[in-house]
Amino acid sequence: MSRSLTLAELLPELGAAIRDQGLATLEIRGVAEDSRQVRPGDLFVAIAGLTVDGHDYAARAVASG
Fold first, then answer.
1. pLDDT of 1-42, one tens digit each?
2. How remote is the C-alpha of 15 from its chain's centroid?
């Protein structure tokens, strides 16, 4: 991503809605599906795969920022 977007700007593009309006202004600087690559400001996307479930790594992503 070349610029940051707020969660309110990003989610409608993905066909999703914000449930917690307190998060609407949260700035997203990047997107990562690998918890080892998450940086502060990134949105972690947890995907359930055939052998690994990304949800198992959500806590690691949070710890990374």
1. 468 899 999 888 888 888 889 999 999 999 999 999 999 999
2. 15
In which residue are the tokens 């991503």 written?
Answer: 1
Question: How far is residue 26's CA from residue 65's CA, in Å, rounded to a whole number?
Answer: 13
- Cβ neighbours of residue 22 closer than 8 Å, sequence gap 6 or more: none
DSSP string, the chain: --S-EEHHHHHHHTT---S-GGGTT-EE-EEESSGGG--TTEEE---B-SS-BGGGGHHHHHHT-
Rounded CA gap, 10 and 20, in Å? 14
